[in-house]
Amino acid sequence: MAADQGLRASVARTSGFLARELRGVFRQPRLILTLILAPFAILLIFGLGYRTDPPPFRTLLVLPSDNAGFAVEEEDFDEAFGDAIDLVGTTTDVTDARAQLRGGDVDILIIGPGDAITSIEEGERAEFLVVHSEADPVIRSSITLLARLSVDELNRLVLTEVVATGQSQAEEADVTIDTLRDSTTSLVSALESEDAAAADEARDTILDSLNRLETETIASGALLEAVGEALGTEQADLFADLRTQLEATSGDSAIDSARQFEEDLATLEDALDRLLAIDPDLLVRPFGVTVEDISTLPDSPALYYAPGALIILVQHLAITFASLSLVRERQLGLTELFRVSPLKPTEILVGKFIAFVVIAGTVAAVLTGAMLAFGLAIRGDPVFFVLTLVLVISASVGLGFVLSAVSKTDTQAVQYTMIVLLASIFFTGFMIPLGQLVPAVRVVSYLIPGTYGIEALEDIMFGGLTPNRLVIAGLTLYALVLLVVSWFVMRRHVRTTDT
Amino acid sequence: MEPVVVSEGLTKSFTPDAGVFDLDLTIPQGKIVGFIGPSGSGKTTTVRLFCGLLRPDRGSVEVLGGEPTEFDSDTRARLGYMPQHAILYPDLTLAQNLRFAASLYGLGRGVRSRLDDLTDFLDLGDAMDRRPPQASGGEQRRLMLAATLAHAPELMFLDEPTAGIDPVLRRRIWDRLHEISEAGATLIVTTQYVGEAADCDYVAVLADGRMLLFETPEGLRRAAYDGELVDIVFGSPVPSDTLDSLNRAIGGQTLERIDSRTVRLVVDDAGTAGPAIARWGEEQGVTIDESEAYVPSFDDVFVKVVERHEDESQDETETAPDVASARTNGR
Fold it and tell me: Measured between alpha carbons, how far is B104 from B114 in angstroms, rounded to an integer?
């Protein structure tokens, strides 16, 4: 009987705190509206305003006056850099160009090599210099990558020009091939009529024409051979074969050899036709690449950040409510009433814990609904989605209670929660992938509940996967440890005697 | 009957002059004990020591048979505590604050009628839907009182429960406190309204952190003046030697001359002094127009006690250097 009464009293005390916290929040419609609408609006505006490609860099091309033999034109830069740069002009004055960069009039200077031909002849690369003063590390990396890709593109343009020239020369070989074909017909006729003199004359003509043809197609032929080797296709040495066949027309089976020569000549003609039909750009860049994305990422890149934003927001909310709740009770003097009353640490812990899980859970549910409405799907098991949110909220409430223990005023508590928020942006994988942090710093990451939550939610929502067991186990352990520490915080809250 | 509070040499000092010093006190069950003293005299500190909110520096205190700082939940459930200032959640209505306070003592929804009764009694009906910032200071204090009474505790510590409350309601509150006391509960009440001493079974007068007196209200009056007071109106102005004669005859002493014909005397018993005065007048041929007992107000009693304490303190301060000097010379 007494035990029943004790249990009823305990339930009443726990419910008292639960009701108090829920009333405190839900009787403030403006607060609820802010909690739900503000983050939703932030995500929406971010989604509408975010662009994956950075704006083009305002670029000034510097072509030094001693660029004798420099073959690259302004249009080539436009082609090489594409939309990544906005070419604002060309100058030969390096000093003035650097002054413009320092003054912020341009973002990038591309300074061409002084005497490219001489450098190449001396066995050195003709170096371009890309100059910038960008501080943002992401943009700095972009510029470095852009410079490397662009110079590759410029090199390709030069090579394409070379190949095109070779193809043009090969087209001029048509006359020589006609002569070869006629002479071969004459050789076959002379051999059939056993006219040795005519056959010798035809052979001489054929050999001259063959030598001339080899000279005319040397560039394109070498290229065709090189491409063939790169592709792993063995190409026969057609000119050597033809010469061997021609010598055989003087032997015992002269007519058969002459006919074979005729066939080999047709093969050569066919190879040249194929070479001429290939786009020089294709010959220079025979390999292409296609990226197939099998993830289930949403179309809008902004939605990629949605699960992370949800976790960070819910975490921040839970930490703030929990820490402010205890600090305000201390400031109002309510702890004095608690200390005289029969209140137990477990009762206040459970009451407040359930209340904050309900409040943060409600906000999380509304925001999840909004995300789903905007096209994001929960590909994985929804049970794990809910479990992850509940664990993150639980750990965050515990962290909030612990922070309250070291906060003397609500201003201090707010400062601590803001520090956790700032750390969350940098260390949880929300903005910067965890892999980009050195292992020692990742320890900080795993002191923040959101790190586990973001990792698990991205697996569930984007990969359709069951989250890593270690992540869920780690988050569970984290929440349990913090709740145990919170019990001691509550004990201090309701039982400390002033000295 | 077991005492509910026993303290011996109880001391808690914040500075050498501020705190509570050497408090020896025994409070019996079922009584109303008033702690009266000027601001800073140690009333609230005493209550906080009894509640276990403060740990004593020296001495001991037992409340309900246990040391307050080590109370278990069952013992705490028998206590009621109303702090000096209203402590309420500003974002809850007064009604919600009251329900929350009741829940701290394990009272659930089933006590709504009891809470309604208390709020009606304390004239809080209209204010209950308001939040503390919209309620007056008096309403907030009345709510704190309702919260303290809600779970019908055995032992209540009420730190200035009637401060800022109008006299009519104050009277009703005291009547209710008497009912509670008669039902067996013990109430320890601090107040700055000295007149409320009359409503207490015992009064402890505090000054400078020390208890000057612990008496019944009547005992307090007597102790303040070392007897009872009688006012005598003579038919004509009386010379000093005539008064000396009267005092010798009745064993009294002159407290003050109120005007040329009226004097106030301190006597051992005002009831028996009247006939003795009349007899002396007849024997001496002195006309006495009126002779009646004078009951001083508790304000006067309080002032008298505090003045006496201050005089004694001053004497001790003046004597102390002499003693020190004598000790030094004696070496």
Answer: 16
Decide if B69 and A20 are in contact by the 8 Å CB cutoff. no
End-to-end CA distance of chain A: 38
* pLDDT exceeds cutoff 50 at A233: no
Q: Taking CB atoms and an 8 Å cutoff, what residues of chain A touch B83?
A: 333, 336-337
For β-strands B32-36 and B202-207, DSSP reports them as parallel
- A28: nearest CA partner in chain B: B91
For chain B, what is the largest distance between any 2 Cα atoms, rounded to a whole number of angstroms? 77
Which value, in Å, is the radius of gyration of the alpha carbons in chain A? Answer: 39
For A329, nearest residue in chain B (alpha carbons): B89
**What is the spatial distance between Cα A454 and Cα A430, in angstroms, rounded to a whole number?**
7
Q: How many CB atoms lie within 10 A of CB B279?
A: 12
Of the candidates B177, B173, B225, which has an alpha carbon nearest to the alpha carbon of residue B201?
B177
pTM score = 0.76
Q: What residues 90-149 of chain B have any CB closer than 8 A to a CB of chain A?
A: 90-92, 96, 99-108
Question: Quick check: B103 and A12 CB within 8 A?
Answer: yes
The model's pLDDT over A469-479, given as tens digits with 9 standing for 90+, comes to 999 999 999 99
List, in sequence order, the alpha helices (H) in A341-409: 345-373, 382-405
ipTM over 0.95: no
Closest-CA residue of chain B to A345: B73
d(CA A157, CA A181): 36
- What are the pLDDT digits (tens) for B237-289? 888 888 888 888 888 888 888 888 899 999 988 888 888 888 888 888 888 89
